[in-house]
Design a protein that fits this description.
It is built from twelve helices and twelve strands. It is an alpha+beta fold. It comes from Spongisporangium articulatum.
Length: 424
Amino acid sequence: MPGREVVRRVLAVAGMLALGFLTVVGVVHGQPVAAPVTTPPTSAGAPREALDVAAVDALLATRARAVSDDDRAAWAGTVAPVAQPLQGQVFDRLRVLRPVRWTYTRVGEPVRAGATRMRVDVRLTYELADGGPTVTRPQTWVLQLDGGPKVLSTASTATPDLWDLTPVVRRTANARTDTGDARCTVVAAASRRPVATQLVDLCPDVLDTVQKAVRAPGADRAPVTLVVPQDVGQLATLLGRTDPAGLDRTAAITVGVAHQPAEAVLINPEAFGQLRAVGRRVVLTHELVHVATRAVEAGGTATVPTWLDEGTADEIAYAATDLDAETIAGPVLDQARAGRYPTRLPTSAAFDATGAAPDLAYAQAWSAADTIEADKGVAGLLKVHRLVAGGTSLDAALQQVLGTGTAGFVSMWQQHLGRLVQNP
């Protein structure tokens, strides 16, 4: 499966689970709990009867229907006795989600793991809301064969979902806006209900702002999933990271497969909770711009430079506030006042939250995007973004929209910074 692409919003305004396939895995109060399952090694004298692939496929179908039908008894009927307590907890978390689609598909042939067990690779596919992104997760299941296949464990082999880590709550915002229906699904750790409520209250209005700015087919049909982990440690796990370095300064992150609609926006509850109301609005608007542009540009062939992607999101986010340029882009304006104007656009590495000056990179990105907006409006800025995503070089895209290539644009940017210094 293609890797998940990550875009993040660093605060500028105020992996995977290590589960062996022979382990019954559950989570209690956010902590992994493992009950070992001993698997006898395969030997020459072990039974070699053919694996019943049809029975495995029937098991997968029954499990999927149990989730869709909220049928706990049917789910329990697919589980080996030793795994009932932990698999029961898994089901209780899934039933909170109320997904509109939930399917399991066998990938390849099952592999015997001893005399009475088999291992099978499975692809989970789900949608949490009508029209929302289709998400896939690879898993490895271990089945007990005695009396027909029964589930012993269902370990994720990629980044997990929040409900794999902790009990969750689901909140939904459905509101009519000027540009269509605003649809937000919030899935939050049960301990983060207050943040979930804040997001549900804020999301429809922010979606309206974004849809008015990104007026393109697809932007108004992009349901949003917001995921709120319990803490920065869980945020790192959801990103497939073992080290949370830099995430404490990251308020939100949009994730998904490159060139496809976003899967979700991950919210750092600690950083997000430190923001004032205007900061929360800016962060959420910024991320939903990413969601909207990804929906419009799905199927593109090129990666948009980080400065253009982040600058576009910030330009639209800050335009909906009364914050001035000094507040938004202080670091780059301070340098300009000292006569140090940027001579090149910021690299992707400059935005790393663990780096020396991500705030400067974001200030440069916003001011560069603002340079395009000041000359050609937000429509011109979005056109540059779409052209680059579609495979046009940055130099050619700037030439098409602004009438000048990258070198000329840097000169325009310097002049724009000079005007901002004079009239912040």
